[in-house]
Structures are given as C-alpha cells and as structure tokens.
Amino acid sequence: MRAIKVALIGTKFMGKAHANAYRQARAFFSPPILPVLYLACGTNAKETLEFAEKFGFARYTTNWEEALGPEIDLVDISAPNDLHAPIAIAAARAKKAVFCEKPLARNLDEAKEMLRAVEEAGVPHMVCFNYRFFPAIQLAKKLISDGALGEIRQFHTLYLQDWGLRPGLPLTWRFQRDKAGSGALGDTAVHIVDLARFLVGEIAEVTGMLTTFIPERPLPQGGMGKVTVDDAAAFLARFKSGATGIFETSRVALGRKNFMHLELNGTRGSLYWNAEDPNWLWLYSLDDPPHLRGFRRILVTEAEHPYAKNWWPTGHILGYEHSFVHAVVELLSAIHEGRKPSPSFVDGVRAQAVLEAVLLSEGSRRWEKVPD
Amino acid sequence: MRAIKVALIGTKFMGKAHANAYRQARAFFSPPILPVLYLACGTNAKETLEFAEKFGFARYTTNWEEALGPEIDLVDISAPNDLHAPIAIAAARAKKAVFCEKPLARNLDEAKEMLRAVEEAGVPHMVCFNYRFFPAIQLAKKLISDGALGEIRQFHTLYLQDWGLRPGLPLTWRFQRDKAGSGALGDTAVHIVDLARFLVGEIAEVTGMLTTFIPERPLPQGGMGKVTVDDAAAFLARFKSGATGIFETSRVALGRKNFMHLELNGTRGSLYWNAEDPNWLWLYSLDDPPHLRGFRRILVTEAEHPYAKNWWPTGHILGYEHSFVHAVVELLSAIHEGRKPSPSFVDGVRAQAVLEAVLLSEGSRRWEKVPD
Amino acid sequence: MRAIKVALIGTKFMGKAHANAYRQARAFFSPPILPVLYLACGTNAKETLEFAEKFGFARYTTNWEEALGPEIDLVDISAPNDLHAPIAIAAARAKKAVFCEKPLARNLDEAKEMLRAVEEAGVPHMVCFNYRFFPAIQLAKKLISDGALGEIRQFHTLYLQDWGLRPGLPLTWRFQRDKAGSGALGDTAVHIVDLARFLVGEIAEVTGMLTTFIPERPLPQGGMGKVTVDDAAAFLARFKSGATGIFETSRVALGRKNFMHLELNGTRGSLYWNAEDPNWLWLYSLDDPPHLRGFRRILVTEAEHPYAKNWWPTGHILGYEHSFVHAVVELLSAIHEGRKPSPSFVDGVRAQAVLEAVLLSEGSRRWEKVPD
Amino acid sequence: MRAIKVALIGTKFMGKAHANAYRQARAFFSPPILPVLYLACGTNAKETLEFAEKFGFARYTTNWEEALGPEIDLVDISAPNDLHAPIAIAAARAKKAVFCEKPLARNLDEAKEMLRAVEEAGVPHMVCFNYRFFPAIQLAKKLISDGALGEIRQFHTLYLQDWGLRPGLPLTWRFQRDKAGSGALGDTAVHIVDLARFLVGEIAEVTGMLTTFIPERPLPQGGMGKVTVDDAAAFLARFKSGATGIFETSRVALGRKNFMHLELNGTRGSLYWNAEDPNWLWLYSLDDPPHLRGFRRILVTEAEHPYAKNWWPTGHILGYEHSFVHAVVELLSAIHEGRKPSPSFVDGVRAQAVLEAVLLSEGSRRWEKVPD
C-alpha cells in the first residue's frame, strides 16, 4: 500500500488536532494511502520533540523549510495565519501536496496567490474546514442535495465563544491584524461562511459590522498593546440563489464556549445544528403528518449515518477531534483517487472573498458585492 | 341554553383552579351547558367572600352543607382529602352531580363507598385527574389508540417536586395520614398512576417502597409534630397487558418543581412528556426513514391538535390551568350528552386500588396484586 | 372601588387576548381599579354578539365610534393597524384612556401624530408590548437593572414563525402595505425591537434587508394579488451604549411557530429566553465558581418571581395569554396611581422609529440613523 | 521510562475501545508508564491481523493463552463474559496485571473467585467501569465528596438502549445465560450500579423484576433459539446510607440509543447527567440566590475540569471513547505509584453482588439483601 510522508508545521491546538487525525484515520478508516507522521515542526525545540514523541513522528525540527525536503509528500500547515502563504507557496513549488488550516490566508490577495501556486504546481490542495466533516453536517448536506428541505430560503448562524474575556489574556498573534488578517471574522466566522457555502451556495453580497470591545491587551513584555482586529463581527448576506443569511461571531460572548449554531429554513423542511452538541441534527419536515410535525432530534451515530460505522455502535458519541479525522480521510482518498480534495484552496479563496466584502462593507457602511 | 349552578367547596390552590376553569370554559369553549358560579365555600369567611367576589360567585358560605341546597346542580369538591367522602356521599344523596379532586379518597374502602353512593344515586360523577387534559396527553392517547406506538412495553414515570424542603414548612394536613391518607403517594403519584391507566391500561401487581426523610415538622401551635405519611414513594409494576412500569414520586427532590415526566416505549414508537414543558410532546416513530429517526418535539398548539383551536394561534403556549378548563368541558359535555364523564369515580377507585397495593407491599416487602 | 368601562375594538386574536386579560386581571390580581367589559366592537354583528356574550360584555356594536360615547373610560384598540391612528386620535380627543395594540402605527409619522393626540389630551396611553410582561422578561429586566450582567455588549434576537407558508393563505390586510405599514417587520420585529429597547437601551443606527419570498397570494374574491410587504426582515444595529444588536424576523421560517429567541451577553453575565418556552430564563453568571459555570435554567414560577404569587404554586407554568393580564395590571395600576403606564405611546413611537430606519436602509442600502 | 507490554484479548467493540485507549493515553497524557501494544488476540485470524495492524500491535494470535507468555505485563480482557474468569485467573497466576471489562463475571461466585486469584497473586487488577471516567462524572464525584450536594437522598437512573429490537438480530452470546450470566442486567445495569456505588455508596437491599419481551431469536445456523436472559430489568434499592434508588435498564426501549441517565437529589443540591450528552453536567444548588435557582448546564471542558486540559480548548467536546483513555491513565498511574487501581475487582464483586440480589429477588418476589 502506498504511504505518504507528512510534515506537520504547528504543534499547538491545531497541530495536535491534525497529528491525532492522521493516526486515527489509519486506525479506524483503513485509508487507501497510509499517512506516515514523518516530520513535526514547531517553534520551541523541547516542546516539539515532546510533541513528536507523543504522536510518533520520526523526526522533528524548528525550521519549517525542512518540510520542503525530498522525502516529504504532504505539507500540513497548522501554523499561525501569516505563515500560511509562504509555506503553502514554497510547498507547492516543491511539489508537495498541501493541507492548510483555515483561514486560508490573511486576506483575499494572499489567498489567491496561494491558489495560483498550488494550481500552477498541479499539487493536491485542501483547506481544513473541519466542520464540514461532522457526521451531522454531512447528513445535512445529503438531505439538502436530495431536495429534502426544498429550496433553502433562510440561513441563520451564530458562532460564539468567550475565551477573549479571560482575564489577563495577552496580545497574541490572534489580536494583531498583520499576523491574523482579522479577528473573530477570520478565526471563527470563516467556518460559518464555509458551511454556508457548503450547504446553501455562493454569497452574492453582504453588509456587516466589526466591533472591538477590548481595545488593549497585555503585551508579553509588559505594558499594554493595541488590539487591531475585531472581537466580534456580524453581517447580513444575500446568496446568489436568493436566500438570505445572517451571520454573527464573537470571541467575547460570555458563557458561550464553542457555540456554533446554524439553522436553515427551506420550503420543504428546516434543520438546525450546534457544535456544542454536534452529534445531534434537528430536522423538521413537511413529509410528516401535520399533527405530528416537530423538529426531530437525530442522534447521528447509526450505521446508516456518515462515518458512524467506523467508530462505535449506535448512540456512542463522537467528539470534536473526529471531524479532523474525517477531513484527513477525504484528503487521503482524494489523493488516492486522483481527484481534487474538497474543500480545496478554491473554497478557501471563496470564503476569504466573503470576509473581504465584510471588511469593505465595514469601511463603506454599505452593502458590498463579494469579489470574484 | 341549559345552565347548572355550581357549588365549589375549597378556595385554595384547587378551588382557584376550578373556579377559573368554569369561567374560562364558558369564554373559550361555548360549552353546551353554562356553568354558573353560584356558591363558594371556604373555611374563613373573609377570604371566602374575597374569593367569591374575584371569581364572580353569587354567594359564599363557610358551611359546606349549603352545597346540598335545592338550587345547586353540581358539587365541586376541592377541599382536603378527608372531606372528599362525606361531601361526595352527601351530595350524591342530594342528587347533585359531583366533581371531585384527586385522590378520590384517603383509602380504597372510602373510595369504593363514594363510588357506591354516586352510582346508587345515579348522578354524574367525575374525578379531576386534570393531567389527562393537557393537549399533548390527549394527542399521546390518540396516537396510542390508533396503534401508532404499536404495543406498549415499558412505561417509566417520575413525578418530582421539592416544596417539602421549604424551611419551616408546618405540619399541614398533607403530612398527616388521618387527613391525607398518604403523602406523596396519594398527592402526586396518584396522577401518574391515572396517566398510566389512561395510556397503558390496568396495573396487575406492584412492589414498592415509601420513605419519610423528614420525620418531624413544626406544629402551627409551636413545637414539632410527627409526619405520618411518605415524602417519597417508588414502585415497580406489571400491567395486565404484560407491559412493565416504574413509578417514582417525591416532594423533597431538590430542584424539581412540578417535574412530572413520563415515557412510553412501544414496538412501533416511543414518546415522552414533561409537565414542566407541557406544550411539547416528544415522539419517536419507526415510520420515519431509518437515517432520519429521532425523537421529534411537537409543539401541541396547532389547529389539528386537541383543544388548540379554542385558544390562540399556533405556537402560543398554554399553561397549567388550561388542563382544568378542558376537564370542565368534558364534565359539561358528558352531562349534556347524558353519558358518563371520564375519568369517573370508577377511575378514582382503580387508582386508589393501586395506591393500596403499594402500601400493602411496603408492609409485606413483597409484590402485591392490585385489589379489584 | 373605582371601576372603568372598557370599549374593546377588535374581536379576533388580539381582541380575545385583551378581553381575557381584563377578566383575569380582576380574578387574580385585585387591581386597584376594576375593569368593566362594557362595549365590544367588531366588524360582523353576529360574531361580535357571540364574542360579547362569551366574555361578558354589557353591549356590542359594529361601529367603533360608539367607543367615544360618554360612558366609556378606556378605549382598547385591538383592530388592524390602519385603524390604530384614527381610533386613538378620536379616543384621545374624547378624553378616553387609550390602550393600543402594536405596532402603534403604520409608520413613524402616524405614530407621532397619535402620541401628539394623547399628550395634548392628557389621557393615559399605553401600547401593548405584551412580551415585556412575561415573568422571565421582568426578571431579566431586574437582573440587568441591578447590574447582574454588567455592561451589555451583544444582543441577538430572532423571531420566527411559519404561518405565512400555510397553503392557500389569502391576501389579508397583513400582506398589504397600505393597511399594515410593513409585514413581518411591523408585525413581529416590532416586539423584539421593543424588548431590545426595554432591556438594552436606545438603538442609534441600523442596516437591514427586507425580503418577500412569496410575491402573490390568493385574493378573497378569486385570482391572485400582489404582496406589498416583507415576509422576512433582518437588520444589524448599534445601540447608543455601544452594544451591538442582530435582529431577524420571518413569517415563513418553516417549523418555527412563535420562536422569539433573545440572548444578551454582558461583561458579568449572559442570559437567553424563548417565547416558545417562556417560563424558563437561562442565566450565566461570573458570580458562580469557575468550575461550576453554565447557563442555569430558572423556572420563573417561584413566589420570589414577578407575578408568580398571584397564580399557582411553584412549577405550575403560565401560558402566552398571561402576559396580557400583566400588561392590563400595569395599565390599571398606573391609571390608579396617576403615573404614566409603561410602555407608553412614547415607546410605540421609538420602536416605530427603528422600523422606519430599517425601511430607509433597505432603500439606501446603507446604515441609517434611527430618527428622533 | 518504564514500559509495559499489553496483551489485549478481544477485537470487537470493546477490543477496539481498549486498543484506542492505550494509544491515546500515550499521545495525550504522558503516562508515567508507557503501554506497548504487544499482542492482539481474537477468534478470527484474518480479522485479528487486520486489527493488530491498524492499532500497531507487534503480534497477534487466536490463542489467548499466549497472553500468559513471559514477555507480557498486562492482560486486558475485552472478550465475552464467560471468558473473563478463566483468563483473569490464569493471568493472575502468571503474575500479570489484569484489566477486565465489565461485568466482572457471569455471577457472584465467579467474580469472587477472580478476586481471590488476583489478590493471592498480588497483581494489580482493575475492572473497566469506563463511565466513572467521563469528566462530568468525575466532577460530580468531586462535588459530592466536597459536600456540595449535602446528604444524597434519592438516586434515579435509567439506562436505555434499543439495539435488541433490530430486525433479524441473531441469538448471540449476549442472549444466553450460560455465556453472559444475565442480559441487560449484567450488560448495562451493571454500569449504573457501579455509578451508584461510586457516587452514593453501598446498596443494602433491592427488589426487582426482569423481563424478556422477545423470547426467541434467530440462530446463526437457522431456526430459532430461546433467549435465556432478560431484555429489561428494573429494581428499587435502599442504600446503606438511607438513600433510596430506582434503577432501570432495557435493550428494547425504542428510540433510546445509549441513554444512560442519572439524577441525584441531595439536601444541598441535585445533579443529573446523560451519556448521550456526556460533556454536560446539570447542577442545582441551594448556594444560588433563591430567585436565581435552576439546574445549570455545565460544559465540562474547562481547564478547571478533570482531564480537559489534556485534550482541547474550552468547548470542544469529547466523545464516548475518551472515558476509556482516562481509565487507562488511572490504571497506568496506579501501577506506577504502587497503589491499587480504582475501580478494582473489589468493585467488580460488589456490583455483581447487587445484580445477584436482583436475580434472587426476581425469584423470591421479595426484597433481598445484597450479599456480602
């Protein structure tokens, strides 16, 4: 069986999630290509070694350019946003497959440059919009594709967290526009933008607002530094299909931890889902008899459901990390089958274009078209 | 249109619920017989007058025997349990229709005596098991009768409250066996026993336990008095149909206010319901496609649902008190149609027989048959 | 005790809710002024008579000008929106107290004219924003006023219904701009605008979108007529306080019946509430120990809670209609105490100003200031 | 660092869960002893090889006696119930540490024999009651130990599944008394018995009922075979502390998948939890102000919560399998520290004694003491 050697850049939250995903894909999914955890790359040598040992990487480094070495097949970018473009472009030129965390880039231009690089190099590329890979979201997608909801008319989504309120939280890269591109918009809203595109279709235009509630945060070196990104973002949208959308995200919504909530209302049915209870899909259907209609709470762990058979029997729930495993399975399957993985950098660019339009609209105080 | 004059005995929680029910039945249901609030009877003259004025009774008294006067058509017994038998029997002999709060009596013998009296007198009789009259319960009943759940195999129910924990709560009649007959068993479990009979059928045998967690409570006159009834009761049951049942009730289950929860599992479907959220019925059905099965949350306020059309448009919820209104509508309709109201004293006796078997079993520490 | 004679104009959904409210206020709240149901006014004589009999009105009419007669003290406007202004202004001139359903008017100018009329006449005036009067909303208000949530930063609200999808629904006045002023915006969004003002404060500016998904509906006389109002509306808002708001409403959101959902995030706590489960308030508080924080589900039926003591013991839930009873209690109490009822026509005007800004913004495709 | 070589016997549901647990413990918990997946043992050679490859075992076999070889340190018994005793006893004699799936044995005698063997051999022993190791259950335990709930008075628990209803389900070992010992009682009730002991304490006496709703099931070789175990079991219990308990389990409760629900009511607080939503703990506390009391829904994923820090940031949920990882961490830590792992075979025996009393009571139709 074919194996591919993975260089994983990033060893924090996302690095851990990705490392775990390759291992678990192998143990639970018999992927057609075996991912080999070859090179772990982090900023701190001691921590990177520890990380490499825990997850069983063959080697480790603090120099990401080692990921461009001839023995590497796949470069996995789980590093901060400002490194996405340089690494992805270098990896593409070195003819590596590229798997990149979201948001694809700090802005639309950068994202397009990355897409150009992977397309010119003809290498497989995928962006890790992991939320697509929750079984309930896959089931939702299938229902929509099958027409079970009719025409989608309204889409509402909130993605609320409150970690931004933690006392004494320092001014990390996530609060700096030059490193992160934007704040909650690029960090969390990008997920719901992608899900909107996945489930409803392309967005035509938006009008939005960005808010920074906490203007200064402690600098690691002492003193306070200016926050240059948004703590919260909200926008209205019109889809090309005529559907309407409402989006909101925040990292300072007290009490909400990873509250990504989405609801779709169609002409034949409606559904909603929440990432804090991701095993459940709620479905309302006009197919039910009138006196027995109601949102039904489907525990998406049956053998009939996406991915479920590979894990545990009915009713034994999956967690957050499983979405990454499924994403890796898609990546490996697509490479094996010689087709483009999905979502690809094209999806990364399209999501970025929506964020760009929101930022424009914040400045112009008008509706803005999503750029092509 | 025919009118009947009502004498209502009791002006506290239940008296208020009944008085309101007659009025609202009239305003919202165009009942075929008009209930006239004629005589209110309480223990305290000043309070009874006030009560009578608020609800529009023509007269008031502190002597319940006035309810036997020739002008009265219907005697409504919302008084403490030890008064149920004397009033009901006297009312029957005076040829009044009788509407009695639950539990019908303090014990099975008393209940049977009451049944005998109303049957001998040939008067209409009804026991106020108001929970049958929540729209969701009526819908559940219909589903079961229509076979939508298949054969019912398992019935689980809890009825938990915590008012018994209120600091300084005095030793009222509800804590005294001679006045109340039993504690949580007769007060709250009787409701779930009735719903079990209504939805599943007759209970054949039981084994139970009664517990008094708080053995003494303050006397109104000072000092402490002994609690002679149960704070909590639980029992296992076998229905005549072969179904099994689990029942539990408590008045000291901290945090639970009026938590009457019931679940039925059948061979074709299952449902559950809770009195703290009574407008919602949860239904699981094998009729749904396998990958879309789940408990569906039906908001029982549609025009297609029992009673709903008489109140508000879809989605505007009803409260606790509405169940009494519907009970009164049944009472008035049955009298008008010359049929027996349901649930009748027969149902009161059958529920009492189950309580009796639980009490027996507590003593014998064995399964006990429910007496005929 | 003082009594006031009520002329109620409108006998449909709102007429029924108001008639019931006066009666129940009297029975459950011992209001300082007794409301007397004196005159019922509807469009159909037979139906109005029936309505009058059911609720116990002394008289009925099909001519609303009879409400201006000298024997009337209070004119209650539960008629379609285009009648609000003429009736209110006439009633004010005839020196009647005026209680008007929402939205106060079809547009801001009309609303201001009404306010001018009642102020010039010096009569008591109140607009029936009944949602303020759910016990959970009153509790929320108290918590906010007491500072328990800190500074409110974010407010999100949805008000979704689906009655607009009912097949064959005719082109009633609710779908016509000249009669209704707007569609879901004025009908349902106005409630959440009022709650936003009640709980968070004045809105400074908005940007919105209105959508008509179903452009034609059957005419009563046959054929199809054009829908001239919105089926759905959404807007972003900035409050004067700096808080942000997201509002959405729809009458075509399949599966949602009376789903008014609101959430507030503050610096010390957050809360949410839903009108389909109105007895429950969810509260998150930084006052809880860090490892025990979570949204707590408060059943707002305790003796300590607003209005609860007047109804039933703990845990016995209230319904939709009770909010109107509490509104009437406020109206009667304010009149008795010689203070302005709240919410008054001033609140009606302020809510209308927000709707006006949304409509403006729909045209200009920009943010618009809420007019003074 | 010390490593221990694991022989895992069983490659189905539980084998997979255990194999995964050792790997994940290593990657996420830096255990003080490294578990080495050395030998996988199954009944089918091809499947066992595949299993071994997926999880990275060094060797595989179809003969469990190879687990007794000198290179093995720990024998993990994830095989059917009738193999627990022979393997555990042989492993103990061969001086291996033993980690055994629940129920410890088919009956109390067998369980005691196993305990005797491990104690005589002086080897570490643990029974895999994995539900103890959900973070929410650990948090619950801590709250109870700290006295936050006061004295526990009432414990209610249901464990409902419906896989027994799957059409055509063959008569596997789980339906045969000689192989399984009992049905739902030993398979699922044993988990809630263990949690009852863990959270509330020892059970003194019980009265129960066992029911077989489906008396025959298809034999693999064709024709039908008799089911000799229970499909459902229920019992009442009195704890030594005076608390009461209600237990029910079923494998034929339509619509319930892995619905293990438990509620405890104490004198200072109450809590509940459900295995279908295992990241959430619901807590009610008298410490809250009276008007703000309610069950609070704690998302047990904060850094302050058990195990959470080793996984993902706040709000990113864990699944079923993580409980096994935590159990393995306890096993490895205890071995390293030279203390007894918990829960040990002693707990396995005590749980078995409760099941034994339920079986006795089913025969005698009386309350039965839990044997010592």
Can you walk through the features of this model?
4 copies of one chain form a homotetramer. Chain A is α/β, with parallel strands linked by helices and 372 residues long. Chain A has 2 domains: 3-128, NAD(P)-binding Rossmann-like Domain (Rossmann fold, 3-Layer(aba) Sandwich), CATH 3.40.50.720; 132-342 and 350-364, Dihydrodipicolinate Reductase, domain 2. The first copy, chain A, has 9 helices and 17 strands. The first copy, chain A, has helices at residues 13-29, 45-55, 84-93, 108-121, 135-145, 177-180, 184-199, 322-337, 345-364, and strands at residues 3-9, 34-41, 59-61, 74-77, 97-101, 125-128, 152-160, 203-211, 216-218, 224-226, 232-239, 244-250, 259-266, 269-274, 280-285, 295-299, 368-369. In chain A, strands 16-15-14-13-7-12-11-8-17 form a 9-stranded mixed β-sheet. A 6-stranded parallel β-sheet of chain A has the order 3-2-1-4-5-6, sandwiched between helices. In chain A, a hairpin with a 2-residue loop joins strand 13 (259-266) and strand 14. In chain A, helix 4 (108-121) runs antiparallel to helix 9 (345-364). The longest helix of chain A is centred in the C-terminal third of the chain and has 20 residues, at 345-364. Chain A starts with a strand and ends with a strand. The model of chain A has no long low-confidence stretch (mean pLDDT 97). At the B-C interface, helix 1 of B face helix 1 of C. Strand 16 of chain C pairs antiparallel with strand 16 (295-299) of chain D.
